[in-house]
Amino acid sequence: MRKILITGGTTFVSRYAAEYFVKKGDDVYVLNRNNSYQSEGVTLIEGDRHQLGDKLKHYEFDAVLDITAYTREDIRDLLEALGSFSEYLFISSSAVYPETLKQPFKEEQPVGFNSVWQQYGMDKIEAEQYLLEKVPHAYVIRPPYLYGPMQNVYREPFVFDCALEKRPFYLPGDGEMKLQFFHVEDLCRFLEVLLEKQPEDHIFNVGNPEMVTIKDWARLCYDVVGEEFSTIPVDEKYEQRSYFCFYDYTYELDVKKQQALLPETKSLYEGLQESYEWYCVHEDEVKKKPFFEIIDRISIVPNVKQ
C-alpha cells in the first residue's frame, strides 16, 4: 500500500485520480479547502496550499500527485509545506509548446509562449521549471484535452445536450479541424506506471496516438446518446469559441514515449460512453456555458445530413 497525496480531489481529474488509487488499495490523502463533496475512502487534509503552515510536515508520502498546480507559486508553496516524500508527479499541459513549432510536438522541443493559450501556458512553464529545479527526479506530464467521467467542463457534455435535444450540431467550418484526447483513466494508469517503473525520462507527453476531426468526434457523441447526427455549418465570421467548446487550434503531441510504457489506451467511443453514462446521473456537476443562446442567434443555413 502506497501513501499518496493528491492535490484537489473534488473535481474531475483530481477526483477521478483519488477514487482510482483508492480502488487500487492505496492510502489516499486529498488536500483541499473542504468546500465540495469528498470521495469515499480518502483522508482529507483541509487547507489552502498557500497557507498550510505545518499541516503536512509530519507526513511521509510515497508519492505526491500534484493535479491542481498552475503556477510557480503553487509548486513553491506546496514544496515548502511538505515533509517527506519519495515521488512527485505534476500534471502540466501541452499549452507549454509554442504553436509555431513543428508538429507533432516532442518533449525535447523548446517550450515558450503560445498565442492561443497565452498566460496559462507560460504559468505552466514556470511551474515545470521550478519543480524540476527543486526536485530533479520529479515527473512532468503534458496532456492534450482530457475527457471521461467526472468531466465538469462543458465539452462532450455540450454535444450530448445537442443530441438529447435532437438538435443538429453547429459545426465550425468544414469540421475537419483535428483534436487529440486522453481519457482520465488512461492518465491515472500512466501515473501508476511511472510510480512502478520510475523511467529515466522525466517529461512525458500523453494522449491517444490517433487524432479525430471535430465532425467525427461530434458524431461519436451523438452515437453514444443514440441520436441521428446532422450538422449546420457555421460561417467563419462567428468566433468559434463563442458557440463551440474548443479553440480554433489544431495541435498534435508525439506520444511515443508514453506508448512505450502504456501501449494500449481506451478507444474514444468507449471513453465517450463512460462519460455519457456519468453525465446522465451528474448533469448538475457540469459548468455549462451559454452555447445554445449563441447558436440560436446564428443565422440558420439548410440542414445538411452527414
**Can you tell me the CATH superfamily of the domain at 92-305?**
NAD(P)-binding Rossmann-like Domain
> What's the mean pLDDT score?
96
Distance between the termini: 51 Å
Secondary-structure element pattern, one letter each: EHEEEHEHEEHEEEHEEHEHHHHE
Write down the CATH class of the domain at 92-305: Alpha Beta
Q: What strand line-up does the widest sheet have?
A: 3-2-1-4-5-6-11
Helix content: 25-40%
Poorly predicted residue ranges: 301-306
Which range does the strand content fall in? 15-25%
Beta strand count: 14
The number of helical elements comes to 10
Oligomer: single chain
Overall 3D form? globular
Structural class designation: alpha/beta
Summarize the structure.
Helices cover 34% and strands 19% of the residues.
